[in-house]
Design a protein that fits this description.
Strand order of the largest sheet: 1-3-4-9-8
Shape: flat
Length: 148
Amino acid sequence: MTLVRYTYPTTQPRSLSPFARSPWAGLEGEIDRLFQSSLGEFAGGVSRRVPVDLFEDKDNTYVRAELPGVNRADINIELVDGYLNIGATRKTKTGEREETTTLSRSVSVPDAAVQADKISASYENGMLTITLPKREEAKPRKVTVAVK
């Protein structure tokens, strides 16, 4: 089993010249992401990104998403145009006030590598696990090479 931690993409420079790239471009994007994720709730944002882990074995690719406090009926999963879209709504009631938080995440999934009709999902203890079965032609193959 291979474990791959998804990282947020960094912004790319508009110029194609390797000399035009700023050595700080990745750092600037990471600082922007940190401020957005930590200060987003103070800025009045109610939509948050779902943290996900991606890992695979020889037969399946798995997407594990943390959705604490979300009811099973409030989770929506779609595979559309090569993207696995995960959406959820968390409702929190404090006294007479009810707050609704929308959680979402999209993960790129190659259509040629996944059997879309056999995708399954399970939700237990706030952890959503989506199983994406690989197509036979996308599975790794072992080839023996004869040395003469």
